Hints:
mainly alpha
Amino acid sequence: xxxxxxxxxxxxxxxxxxxxxxxxxxxxxxxxxxxxxxxxxxxxxxxxxxxxxxxxxxxxxxxxxxxxxxxxxxxxxxxxxxxxxxxxxxxxxxxxxxxxxxxxxxxxxxxxxxxxxxxxxxxxxxxxxxxxxxxxxxxxxxxxxxxxxxxxxxxxxxxxxxxxxxxxxxxxxxxxxxxxxxxxxxxxxxxxxxxxxxxxxxxxxxxxxxxxxxxxxxxxxx
Length: 222
């Protein structure tokens, strides 16, 4: 009965609400309002780490891990659950994938110094191999996401391609021990963070009554 009553109330509210108000309400129920800004914050922290902002990787790592666990990881998880609750399958898939990425990255970074899964703090070869496995796995995963999402507006394709490029550069930099390649990877991380800022401006703008920002045509079906 409660479901029927809620549906009846919603129907009356829809009749009493103009199309503009209804559109604003729909835009306000957007998981991107949580998922995108928390993604951007984690990306900025990662970019600062890769470019050597503090000149000490251990110092940057200590500052980055709380952000990845308590902001980005949780934010992606909240956005995933929100998407599932409103029946938004594509956003649920995307935010779910990035929940896995950010939380697993935070666990990896923590475990490398704490020897959770092996002697990574004392054996450089083990630590490097672990990072290479992680980066290659996620590179493959995000490339698959990129190809599977080509029906989305082009801005999302740009975002995913930049993430692919960053993962590839960090993988190459880790394998070769090149801080220069890692630095370039950090710049690419900042680039996809800027795309995330654009997406957040669009989502929050629509949620507060603004018009959608240009997103570009989809590569497939656009």
